[in-house]
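Reading a protein record of the kind used here takes only a little practice. The record below shows the convention in full:
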Amino acid sequence: MRHIAIVGSGPAGYYTAEACTKTFGENARVDIIDRMPVPFGLIRTGVAPDHQSIKAVSQRYDAVSLGDNVRFIGNVSIGQDVSIAELLSLYDAVVLATGAPNDRTLDVPGDDLPGVIGSAAFVGWYNGHPDHATLSPPLNGDHAVILGNGNVALDVARILAKTPEEFAGSDIARHALDVLAQSSLTHITIIGRRGPHQIAMTPKELEELERLERADMQVSASDFPPVAEDAALEPGLRKSVGLLRTFAGRDTVNKPMRVTFDFFAMPVAVEGEGKVERLIVEQTQVDEDGHLAGTGEQYAIEADMIISCIGYRTPPIEGVPYDVDHGRFANQDGRIEPGLYCVGWARRGPTGTIGTNRPDGYDIVERIASDLASGVTDRSGDSGLDALLNERGVAPVYFSDWQRIDAAERDRARDGAPREKFTTVEDMLAAAHGEDAAR
């Protein structure tokens, strides 16, 4: 029997568990360990609440958890309740699938002023993550500036610009919906250090912006290269650039909010007296080889809030080699050290889509199978972990407990919404134990 522990219950973790069941069959016992009492990680608290079709992939993960040889073990914190060294003594292989939940820092003067918010925190706030549910974004001003030219920046802009009615059918947290309904924002600026040809925005997300009821898109035609150069772009990027050209080429629509794309602008400082008041940017240029350089010309953008969507980092774990430069675990093709592996963003950094994690998970399991092929071990696996947690007074949440949380969240949903999430661990645990007070 092979005993495998997977730390993290997001897409990377579940695809790895699925691969284990297909590769080892009944000869494996897989424990998926998470510090939260609820599974699915990024699917639950990272994917935008109005993207319910993407969140539906969790149904595939349900099937994995309901198998006989996979357990979800929530409410267990690595480093606090159990160490990596202890897991390595209990399991034949330990896979770190912790993702990259921490914001990459902006690293400019003034980036610690109140009103500068990382996208992980802001997205966690509107998605009801317990770590960020108490965030108080300053939405009582006129202008929000978003840093970044990827889909996260578009998600944030869309959430800020939507009317309350446009959230119908979403699982946005009630506290965020109430605050956004009182927002006084009239202008959102999306800042990119490079130009339209270097964006990481997909057509679907840009098209969603175009359909917003109260917001008009604005792009300067002077930011684009000659249209003939679009032909050399990858098809998806070419379509995205085409949409931006459409925004630039149409007349201004009389709507109460505008979303402006400001390209070739590099943040150099945040200024304000006790809070964010303006962002200082330097104009940039990109040469034929794609190298970015500042021009020395600077200008100020008045701002009441700045949301930084410039990337994420995997949090270090004590005793695990870490690649500081790339913000991920140090690894060679997913191997960290004997018996210890990483997968997904914890392996490669925050790149790719949710689906990218599936082949990544299967690849890691192939490596595990190869590494274990010639060895015979006598690890205790799940029974050993249970005994250790019981000895320490740790009360795990299992998948059947999550099903009670899930049912309670669905029961308390507002009209038209799929669920109303619990936003504290305490309420999650109460629901897991069937306590009516959590409802």
About this structure: The chain is about 30% helix and 20% strand. The CA atoms of residues 107 and 268 lie 9 Å apart. The domain at 102-308 is CATH 3.50.50.60 (FAD/NAD(P)-binding domain).
